[in-house]
Please model this.
Amino acid sequence: MSKIDEFKNFVKENPRLIKYVRNNEMTWQKFYEIYDLYGNSEDAWKDFLKVETVEAVAAASASQTTSAVSDFMSWIKGIDLDSVREGVNSLQRVIGVMQDFGSSNKTKTEEYKPRPLYKHFED
Model:
């Protein structure tokens, strides 16, 4: 079996390496060079093949959720309600003006009555 085939088998046994390549943190070439130099020695691969426990993943997820909620709450607290109210009032005024403008165009105009042919100006 060639060294490349051994590397392929090593990757199949350790699919966590795929994540590093997909995230552009490493390339297959660099992984192969490490494998070529050190083989499947645990010291060479310990940074890439860390075993993440379910508790660690859950704790990281919970801290991210807590962080997102606290960020959202601080954003809500930072909103100035008076400026929001002023903005809504301005928007209502603009909508009212637009409605008035639209309704003035729809008023009934006098129908056009052609001048009789036998009449001249001011007759």
Q: What stands out?
A: The chain has a mean pLDDT of 81. The helical segments are 3-13, 16-22, 28-38, 42-45, 54-77, 81-105. The chain has two domains: 3-45, 54-104. Residues 81 and 87 are 10 Å apart (CA to CA).
